[in-house]
Amino acid sequence: MKINRYILASRLKSIVIHTFLILVSLTCLFPLFWMLRSSLMTNATIFVDKSLIPHEFNIHNYYLAWTEGNFAVYCLNSLIYTVSVVFGIVVVSSLAAYAFSRLKFPGKNIFFNMFLAAMMIPLPGSFVPLYVLMNKLGLVNTRIGYILCMINVGLSLSIFLLKTFFDKMPSDLEDAARIDGCSKLGIWRHVALPLARPAIAVIVIFNSLNVWNEYILATLLLNDKSLMPLQRGLMVFQGVHSVDYPLLMAGLTIAATPIILVYLSMQKHIIKGLSSGAVVG
Amino acid sequence: MGIAKIKKFSLAQFKDYLENYLFILPAVAIFSVFYIYPFYDIFRLSLHDWNGITPFREFVGLANFQEIMRDQNWWGSLWHAGYITLIALTFQNALAFALALACDRDIRMKKFYRVVFYLPPVLSEVVVGLIWQWILQAGTQNGQQIGLLNYFLNFIGLPHLVNDWLSDPKTALTCIAVVHSWKGFGWGFIILLAGLQTIDRQLYEAAKVDGAGSLSVFKNITLPLMIPVIFVVVILTILGSMQVFVLILSMVGQGLVYHTEVPVTRILASMTGTNRFGYACAQGVIFGFILVLVSFSLNKISNKLKQA
């Protein structure tokens, strides 16, 4: 009798917990579902039909968004920015992190602490002087200007993460390569970088998400529609089609899908990186 | 001979150092131009009156800062950000902690929950803001509510609750805070769960053997061991929520709607709205100073608690 009650209580507890978790999961997923659903409707049906699954699928919105909504250009731009910024961050931060971890030179700690401090000190409104500087350098409305700014945004954290990784990594292989007469740059390129692949994967993923989702610098620095990335383009698009909800939702779906796919395929690394990052930071 | 040897050695070392500097050169160069110089410039510009276009800028000393002290809209915006932060700290973090506790055991579909809860945080603020703006939309078409929430309220027989959620000054900020929490709780969940999983299971076993109830286990084992992680989450939640603004721009638009203004949108308004670059920089300096002060004192408290 007593045991039965115990089992019943734990069953009940498990049911309550699962109900709670499933409800929260639904809250996470439903808005995305609603976005997708609304994108498949037409302007005529969206205000009338509130059923969960639309009676007929209208894919024309995607065609309109992609062509007339300029999303083909925005997508390509986002891809260009993400790839070049992430590539830049990996090269620049791994070079610096390798030096901070392995090489000797005067002022090493000062330089490293400088990057560390930048991570700690929040500087809201730094986009104002940054915009002024870019204006002075003639880099407003250029791809390279935006790319350089975004490399800087991800630099400090990437250096920090990679340095911690290099610090824990045994240097036997690098020593062996040095004895074999490999240059420092060669050791970095052919020994250290391949060994640091797990840490670099984390950096690639998090910086990709960050660049893909970045909005404010893209807004201040890029006014030309042909240079805008997706997030900026979305807001322009929303300004023009603010009442055309099916079309807007199609645009949102186009912007969200790549990031969701990348997340789902990489979620193991992302969650692992986030968890370990929290313990370090 | 000895001297020559030392000289040769130090020359080699000099070359060695020079070579090593080359490794950090790209990072330091980018960092100097795009971080350190703007960092210096924000302080310099904050002492000037400048429209951002003409080469002439007038040195006004601390006048911008004095004006901020009297700027009702500025302090109002700070209060708004504080309100959003308060909701994020309580509602969002409590939810994250509850979910983390629920998942810190052998339950089915644990991986599924983890993946789903972290889905909103990977989406951009623009996407999240525009989706929710559509759900919270007010107004009717052909006698039917446009937005899903209002439609739903009508549907379940609560038409008196139908509201213009994002225009009503009474509800707009709360809606923004809730959507912000919706986007953020998954992040807190992952970090808190990672923290919970570092706790030695044997502690729980021992407590159970001693006959401790689950509430007592939570109070005496889980909570004390989680304090460092909780502080990390609290500090990062504060820094993130105080600076939220893209979500607001995408939910209520870029117009000057004072009841949803936060410090960063004020800075943006000073810069792009009224072309007062000096004032915008002064606002940035003050706001940065406040944030540093808050996170610094929280760090202090956290260290004290760790020692105790």
Structural notes for this entry:
The complex is a heterodimer of chains A (281) and B (308). Chain A has 281 residues and is mostly helical. Chain A has one domain (71-280): MetI-like fold (Orthogonal Bundle). Chain A has twelve helices and no strands. Chain A has helices at 2-39, 60-67, 71-102, 108-120, 127-137, 143-168, 172-179, 184-195, 197-213, 216-221, 230-240, 245-280. In chain A, helix 3 (71-102) runs antiparallel to helix 9. The longest helix of chain A is centred in the first third of the chain and has 38 residues, at 2-39. The model of chain A has no long low-confidence stretch (mean pLDDT 90). Chain B is globular and about 70 Å long. The termini of chain B are far apart. Chain B is 74% helix and 3% strand. Chain B has one domain: MetI-like fold (Orthogonal Bundle). Chain B is built from 13 helices and four strands. By secondary structure, chain B is mainly α. Classes of the chains: A mainly alpha (281), B mainly alpha (308). At the A-B interface, helix 1, helix 3, helix 4, helix 5 and helix 6 of A face helix 1, helix 3, helix 4, helix 5 and helix 6 of B.
Number of strands of chain A: 0
Distance between the termini of chain A: 50 Å
Strand order of the largest sheet of chain B: 1-2
Count up the helices of chain B: 13
How far apart, in Å, are the first and last alpha carbons of chain B?
A: 61 Å
CATH topology group of chain B: MetI-like fold
* Structural shape of chain A: globular
Radius of gyration of chain B: 26 Å
Give me the CATH architecture of chain A, please.
Orthogonal Bundle
Strand % of chain B is under 5%
Count of individual domains of chain B: 1
CATH superfamily of chain B: MetI-like
Number of domains of chain A: 1
The main sheet of chain B comes to: 2 strands, antiparallel
